[in-house]
Design a protein that fits this description.
7-stranded antiparallel sheet, 9 strands, about 35% helix, single chain, elongated
Length: about 150
């Protein structure tokens, strides 16, 4: 009985340590001080230069519901992009989609990274990522943060 108990503790410890290496993907918040159109133009060029295909290049204006009512935003969404990293349990390649909201009235930008993989015709998304994939996924939000600060947007 004691051996079984020790075995269970060992397995649970291994699971906790193994799962803790994955990093949770949180949306990135940025602030801008220039015009939203200038930020949008810079972001479109930068995102495309990073290998992403933008779905709505000519139709970015969007109204969203916020806590204090409706907000007018510029919205950029990319197609799913293969990463070259694979899920260990299924062997499927991870894909990434980036979503950017430039809120016109508040000077705030939100960048959300969505990670998933296709398995048997269905899309499975994840809220966390292994370290190598995490670095790939967060490269675009960090690049946008650097773009805002370096160009004083």
């Amino acid at each position: 009985m004691k051996i079984l108990k020790n075995f269970i503790v060992l397995v649970l410890t291994c699971l906790v340590v193994g799962c803790s290496s994955n990093k949770i993907l949180f949306p990135t918040q940025l602030e801008y001080a220039s015009s939203a159109q200038l930020v949008l133009d810079e972001f479109l060029t930068y995102i495309q230069s990073q290998g992403y295909t933008i779905l709505n290049v000519n139709d970015t204006r969007m109204t969203i519901m916020g806590p204090s009512g409706f907000l007018l935003t510029e919205y950029i969404e990319t197609e799913w992009r293969p990463t070259g990293f694979f899920d260990e349990s299924t062997g499927q390649e991870y894909i990434v989609k980036q979503k950017v909201w430039i809120i016109l009235d508040s000077g705030m930008i939100t960048v959300e990274s969505v990670v998933g993989y296709m398995y048997e015709g269905e899309l499975y998304t994840r809220e966390n990522a292994p370290p190598k994939l995490y670095n790939f996924v967060t490269a675009l939000p960090e690049g946008l943060r650097n773009l805002v600060s370096s160009k004083s947007l």
